Amino acid sequence: MHRLAFIVLVAAAFGLMLLGKADTVLISRVGTALTDALTPALEIMSKPAASVGAVMNNLRELAAIRAENARLREENQRLLHWQTMARRLDEENQRLRELSNMVPEPTPRSLTGRVVADTGGVFARSLLVTAGARHGARSGQVVVAAEGLVGRLTEVGARSSRVLLLTDINSRVPVVMEESRARAILVGTNHDRPDLAFLKSQSAVSPGDRIVTSGIAGAFPPGLPVGVVASVDDGHILVELFIEESRLELVRILDYGLNGIVANPSSEDMPP
Amino acid sequence: MRPTVLQTLDHGVRRLVPFTLCLILLLLAVVPMTAPGFLRSAPLVTVMCVYFWAVHRPDMMGYLGGFSLGLLEDLLMHTPLGVSSLVLMLVQFVVLTQYRFFVGKPFLIIWWALALIALGAILLKALIIAALTGHVVAPSAVFSSYGLTLLLYPPLAWVFSRAERLLIRAT
């Protein structure tokens, strides 16, 4: 009896693997429905976890509060200088744009969701956030945090959605080096630091260079901060992201009206 | 004597305890926590759960339990569907066929056996996922996940054996 159950269920598992290869739409719908159903439970569980994390953080910060204060004072001074400069440049930029009749860039609609699950791990890296189709989230939309780009929505349910992180092995993002304007693709590897691939010339990169999205292929708007080059090791460039995946609590979902390469015409959550 | 309706109901609820505990643990594992790097390396919680119940109370969690837990894990973690189910059922199968070995053994032996079985489980999972998706998972990630699994098993086993005494064995 037990043997029979085992054989039948093993066959079922293989069947599911084949089905997952053949009919990805069905599988992703089932997955979305399940995560939607589990989101309330995850939301409840994530609150005490967040409080515990906050307490731990407070304790850690308390230890270094003096040094931190001095550092912040210094940084504040530097930033004030930058602020004056930015204001002046912004004004100048406005005037130049008017003079040259530049087409205004679209301002995105945005939506904020709480991170309720971090399925970061060995085999896949994604987040579940509490913003779904009923709040206006659509698959393919860009997800950012205060520090920079987080990823994009891949599966959108009624009240929750899945964010494919930049570090996931399936993630590919067209980027550009901020200084040299050399284009490349940011490739996720399930590690904390994604790779920089398809760069035309290696000489254009050195550790510490800032990387932003390039906007090529239309999946991401140009100029979103991504990270800095962490190391260049013949042919292998690793990128340190601006965001810290394990510390994300709230993320912003931006709607630029781009469908891009992640458009999934068969899923029901696409705009008409 | 035939069991009364209440007894049958009671038995049914008790049978659900292991699965429910595993499910809670699976959800806890994905709740975002601000943990240092090593702790983020996703231990094999479902393998630990299924292993514990197969070793200590095989009557309380059958293959269907392992299958369903794996299914939920794959859907939640975004891994190819069916992979975790297969791995978990194989863990159960190995333990159940070697049942005599596990009876009355001290905890250290059970822990050592988990070390072997979890290694097989994570390598098999990495292999199947590589075959299905074409992406080879980094060995360092696999081993840190495995190491964390071994470290977390003793506290988990302690909590589970408490739960077993309180909720299942108590009459």
Automatic annotation (TrEMBL), chain A:
<dbReference type="GO" id="GO:0005886">
    <property type="term" value="C:plasma membrane"/>
</dbReference>
<dbReference type="GO" id="GO:0008360">
    <property type="term" value="P:regulation of cell shape"/>
</dbReference>
<comment type="function">
    <text>Involved in formation and maintenance of cell shape.</text>
</comment>
<dbReference type="InterPro" id="IPR055342">
    <property type="entry name" value="MreC_beta-barrel_core"/>
</dbReference>
<keyword id="KW-0133">Cell shape</keyword>
<dbReference type="InterPro" id="IPR042175">
    <property type="entry name" value="Cell/Rod_MreC_2"/>
</dbReference>
<comment type="similarity">
    <text>Belongs to the MreC family.</text>
</comment>
<dbReference type="InterPro" id="IPR007221">
    <property type="entry name" value="MreC"/>
</dbReference>
<feature type="domain" description="Rod shape-determining protein MreC beta-barrel core">
    <location>
        <begin position="115"/>
        <end position="254"/>
    </location>
</feature>
<protein>
    <recommendedName>
        <fullName>Cell shape-determining protein MreC</fullName>
    </recommendedName>
</protein>
<dbReference type="Pfam" id="PF04085">
    <property type="entry name" value="MreC"/>
</dbReference>
<dbReference type="InterPro" id="IPR042177">
    <property type="entry name" value="Cell/Rod_1"/>
</dbReference>
Automatic annotation (TrEMBL), chain B:
<comment type="similarity">
    <text>Belongs to the MreD family.</text>
</comment>
<feature type="transmembrane region" description="Helical">
    <location>
        <begin position="12"/>
        <end position="31"/>
    </location>
</feature>
<dbReference type="Pfam" id="PF04093">
    <property type="entry name" value="MreD"/>
</dbReference>
<keyword id="KW-0472">Membrane</keyword>
<feature type="transmembrane region" description="Helical">
    <location>
        <begin position="38"/>
        <end position="55"/>
    </location>
</feature>
<protein>
    <submittedName>
        <fullName>Rod shape-determining protein MreD</fullName>
    </submittedName>
</protein>
<feature type="transmembrane region" description="Helical">
    <location>
        <begin position="108"/>
        <end position="132"/>
    </location>
</feature>
<keyword id="KW-1003">Cell membrane</keyword>
<keyword id="KW-1133">Transmembrane helix</keyword>
<dbReference type="GO" id="GO:0005886">
    <property type="term" value="C:plasma membrane"/>
</dbReference>
<feature type="transmembrane region" description="Helical">
    <location>
        <begin position="75"/>
        <end position="96"/>
    </location>
</feature>
<dbReference type="GO" id="GO:0008360">
    <property type="term" value="P:regulation of cell shape"/>
</dbReference>
<keyword id="KW-0812">Transmembrane</keyword>
<keyword id="KW-0133">Cell shape</keyword>
<dbReference type="InterPro" id="IPR007227">
    <property type="entry name" value="Cell_shape_determining_MreD"/>
</dbReference>
<feature type="transmembrane region" description="Helical">
    <location>
        <begin position="138"/>
        <end position="160"/>
    </location>
</feature>
